[in-house]
């Protein structure tokens, strides 16, 4: 798994902010391609093939939102080194992915490093109606399907009632064309990107894991999309880099 380690974190991800810790994101900056695109995508495609039921799920009602998300993604890909032609996408790692509008989340999972969650308003809260989640950090997609934001975040220690209200207001207020972003920082004993369950161990945690999370609204379906770009680094290197700033 060490071949998937990033060399450095983006500059803007060195100063943690309290929950929910959001900031404005440029309209075209919710997708990124970094130096381990090829290694991460090889792993994602393998997970989709071998553990599809664990990493991909969608309620039928989420199909329009997923199709819209695929369409919005395709608009950005040429600027990130992708070549779109003949109903297929030629990726920076040399892979060719055929577009499948009937299975948009699977298509997205083969194209971009980001994991993608679809949240749609059901009553007073946004509910997880679909996701491609190959690189979970201690949560399983099957446990969160069709659950509202409060249920999704139930195990998070700092996610109290006040934070829950602020996050729901954030999801209600995010506007199409004006995405938001935040990030977290965790330490792990193992660099594996696919960690659906917390591993109980007393070993030192030599790896830093940080997720760049973007929140955007689809202009037509009004679904909220939550994207997760995962970085894993050697912790000592990351701390040395931070100290040098």
- Let me know the average pLDDT: 90
Low-confidence stretches: none
Shape type: globular
Compute the number of strand runs: 10
Order of helices and strands: EHHEHEEEHEEHHHEEEH
Spatial order of strands in the largest sheet:
1-8-9-10-6-7-2
Q: What class do helices, strands and sheet pairing give? A: alpha+beta
Count of individual domains: 1
Quote the distance from N terminus to C terminus.
Answer: 28 Å
Number of helices: 8
Proportion of residues in extended strands:
15-25%
Rg calculated over all Cα atoms? 17 Å
Give a short account of the largest sheet. Answer: 7 strands, antiparallel
| Helical content band | 25-40%
Q: What would you say this structure looks like, in words?
A:
This protein is α+β, with helices and mostly antiparallel strands and 245 residues long. It has one domain. It is built from 8 helices and 10 strands. It has helices at residues 37-50, 52-55, 63-76, 104-109, 141-144, 149-152, 161-173, 235-243; strands at residues 23-24, 56-58, 83-85, 88-90, 96-98, 115-122, 125-132, 180-188, 207-217, 224-234. The strands form 2 sheets. Strands 1-8-9-10-6-7-2 form a 7-stranded antiparallel β-sheet. It has a 3-stranded antiparallel β-sheet with strand order 3-4-5, with no helix packed on it. The longest helix has 14 residues, at 37-50.
């Amino acid at each position: 798994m060490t071949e998937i380690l990033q060399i450095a974190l983006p500059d803007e991800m060195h100063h943690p902010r309290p929950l929910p810790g959001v900031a404005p994101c440029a309209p075209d900056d919710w997708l990124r391609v970094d130096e381990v695109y090829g290694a991460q995508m090889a792993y994602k495609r393998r997970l989709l093939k071998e553990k599809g039921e664990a990493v991909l799920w969608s309620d039928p009602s989420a199909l329009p939102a997923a199709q819209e998300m695929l369409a919005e993604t395709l608009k950005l890909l040429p600027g990130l080194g992708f070549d779109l032609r003949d109903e297929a996408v030629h990726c920076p790692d040399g892979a060719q992915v055929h577009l499948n509008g009937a299975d948009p989340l699977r298509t997205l999972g083969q194209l971009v490093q980001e994991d993608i969650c679809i949240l749609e308003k059901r009553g007073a809260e946004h509910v997880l109606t679909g996701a491609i989640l190959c690189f979970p950090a201690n949560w399983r997609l099957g446990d969160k399907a069709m659950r509202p934001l409060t249920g999704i975040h139930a195990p998070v220690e700092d996610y109290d009632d006040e934070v829950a209200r602020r996050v729901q207001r954030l999801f209600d207020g995010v506007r199409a064309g004006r995405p938001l972003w935040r990030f977290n920082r965790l330490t792990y004993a193992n660099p594996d990107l696919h960690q659906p369950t917390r591993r109980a161990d007393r070993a030192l945690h030599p790896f830093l894991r940080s997720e760049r999370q973007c929140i955007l609204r689809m202009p037509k379906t009004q679904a909220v999309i939550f994207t997760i770009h995962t970085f894993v680094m050697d912790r000592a290197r990351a701390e040395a880099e931070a100290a040098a700033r």
